[in-house]
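Sequence only, no structure available. Ideas?
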Amino acid sequence: MSRNKFLLIFLISLFLIPGIFSFELKTGGEIYVPSDRVVDDDFYVSGGEIIIEAEVDGDLVVAGGDIELKGKTMEDSTIAGGNIRISGSTGDDLRIAGGNIRIEGDVGDDVFAVGGQINVTQDTKVGGNLIISGGTIITKAEVGENVSINGGRVQLGGLISGDVNINAGEIEILPNTIIKGNLNCTSSNEVEIPESTEVRGEFTQEASRRFLRLPRERRGLRGRVISNLRKYLVAFFIGVILILVLEKPIKSVSQRIVEYPLASILFGLLFIILIPIASALLLVTIIGIPFAIILFLLYLMALYLSKILVSLAIGEGIIGKSKNKLGLILAFGLGLLIWVILRSIPVIRFLIGLLTVLFGFGAFFTGFRRKKKKKGI
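Reply:
I predicted one. Tokens follow.
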């Protein structure tokens, strides 16, 4: 059996297997599901602005921009979006990824949350484990088992029946917190335990080298130059290896950025939206979880590869197309230097990063599509 036939059969099977079970799918720009509605099956929702007040008797999978869930979900909830607020309850596990996340409802088992800003309020009861990774994290929930947090700034409160493990740059234990198990903190700052807080197990703290660097505004010009130089050397080393091993594909894809900039941006935007949604859908089934993890890892690899491709495109745009590997390396080194300088300017830092991802993703996938068409001819 050829690789293409196997891939086609696998993809068809992947969509047919969930089809054995009943489910309901709803897509659109603005979606509102009222409270008088009861969804008897698994519910899949995708849109820009989503409000769900209905009760869902199966699993709930939602992907969108602004998401608000007020209803009751009897089984698992898998949510991916920009701004997410959950005031309804989840009967089993809650898996959630987004920019700004606020959880106010009860969860029967475990919570897995990844995001920029995450707030788990004191109205929340988690029956199992609470596992969070993000930037700014505040949790005051009642947790039936253990708590594990990785973040930049963390505030912990509430009642935790198990152990607590926190790895963060700044950790604050709130007053009146009760931890029935052990409290293990890894941070560069000293963690203080308020008098009203009760830790019934052992309290240990370790210094984290990860967070021992000074804030950006305090490192000064010399520190910023050293940091950018280190980033440049690491990226340059990886880029040179890729050019030496994959000269033709790397060159072909980077040229797509220069030749078809608009198509690259549009396809890049499309894939940035679709890949996280596909990962969230795959998480629903047991057979899909490994593929979701692989897809997410490939997504992260493509994010880093975008920097290599865009830097090479910048370099060749300045000095012209390269005819050999040495020319590619020189063009890449020049383009990467310009890219690092632009990214170090605070005013345009975010814009440069966004354009890099859009151009890189779009050029990669349109280049792959073009290559497949040529083979078909």
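The chain has seven helices and 18 strands.
Hope that gets you unstuck.
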